[in-house]
Structure prediction request, 132 residues.
Amino acid sequence: MKPSRIEHIGIAVKSIDESRKYYENVLGLELYKIEEVADQKVKTAFFKIGETKIELLEPTSEDSTIAKFLEKKGPGIHHIAYAVDNVNDALAEVESKGVQLLDKQGRKGADGLTIGFLHPKSTEGVLSELCQ
Ligand code: CMX
Prediction:
């Protein structure tokens, strides 16, 4: 498994409405989609930047993992997502190398992707997502 590129960088924010101003007005990026991912208890907003995306993550409930992250660490980089050809194959391969998986199988993520998370304790402290 060798990721082909950084698919997106996930950034935890308290409010997409507030945080989008920096990406739009300062960086001049265009917000092309806002999507709620109900089972993750998160609202997402996407900006394209070359081949990569910035994904803003706003919690939709107090028990969302993003709400907990904001409480502990404040707004900032939450995860890095790597593009792979086949998520299930890639998850099995990294697990065979000793990485703790948060998802044993790919599942539906935002923006039409199939995703699987790796535990930050197995990935040098950076919550990592594989996506296809
Ligand atoms: N990056 C690095 N470390 C993180 C982290 C993050 N984003 N989120 C939590 N941690 C660390 C915490 O600091 C904590 O470390 P210590 O044990 O050393 O204190 C540990 O992980 C457990 O954190 P927690 O807040 O007690 O536990 P959670 O219940 O929030 O679980 C995690 C953490 C990573 C297992 C959980 O957030 C998870 O399963 N994440 C994957 C799914 C996800 O993040 N979805 C939202 C994104 C939506 C999308 O892009 O589709």
User: Anything to note?
Assistant: Strands lie at 5-12, 31-37, 42-49, 52-59, 76-83, 107-108, 114-118, 128-131. The pocket of carboxymethyldethia coenzyme *A is lined by residues 10, 37, 40, 42, 57, 65-66, 68-69, 72, 78-79, 102, 109-110, 117, 120, 125, 127 (CB under 6 Å). The first strand starts at residue 5 and ends at 12. Residues 16-26 form the longest helix (11 residues).
